[in-house]
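Revision sheet: structure tokens.
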Amino acid sequence: MRTVLLSIAMCSVLAACADAPRKTAHIEPAAAPVAPAPVPAGPSPNDNLNAVAWTQTAIEHDLIYREVFRNAGEKLGAALKDRWWDALATNERKRADVSKLKPAVIVDIDETVLDNSPYQARLVRQGKDFDEFSWSEWCREKAAKPLPGALEFAQAAAQRGVTVFYLSNRAQDLNEATLENLRTAGFPLAGGETVFLGLGTVVENCEQNGTEKGCRRELVGRKYRVLMQFGDQLGDFIDVDANTPEGRRAAVDPYGQWIGQRWFVLPNPTYGSWEPALFNNDWRQAPEMRRKAKLEALRVR
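Predicted:
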């Protein structure tokens, strides 16, 4: 009897187990690969990024400018006392006796006394290259600020009776905007004299070639003893016959002793005639070809 009852009980338990819902292990589906976050669209890499970033943010940039203009200021007294002190290249000094001429200094404008790096920064951010229209629009904003040390030097020179001439290759239609920018920034503009000599200035009896400044420097030298010159390009001091690395060095070699004495050179890695000198001055080449030429110009030893 116990056996029968036990068998009945076991059958009841098995039946109950059979009717109970089955519990199975929960298996998560395999995780799908996570796609990388999309990269925001933006300009392609620009070779000028580091140059502009250095120009705008490196304290070394500002210190170099202050050093150059301070050095020039310290030499200004000696230049005024020496009646034969003159900073014009030999072929541009047409008047032999300079001892009775009034004193002057010649300064370039862009990246010498006025900072246009915001314009360069816009080009980098937008992935664009220089063009005359956007440059003209920037100049018309009249927002360029004085570079470190430039304003102090120009004002000190003017106070000592030295006329400051501003030579620039800005187009003539930018003359008024440029003068207003200089005036607002505090740069001295001598009355009774045309002190801004932009691109297109007519110089009688002097054959001008493109954007070269030689005739305009000669024009200043007809009435003034040029004590000093300031610029960020070799062409701000002397016209260069062959714009190649070798030609540029040859042009400046005779004046090596004038650097830091009569000629004061400021750094500009963002643009200049040094760049096309590396690709045969041919801007018609595709960007990748120009870049290839610049890479090949690098020294590894």
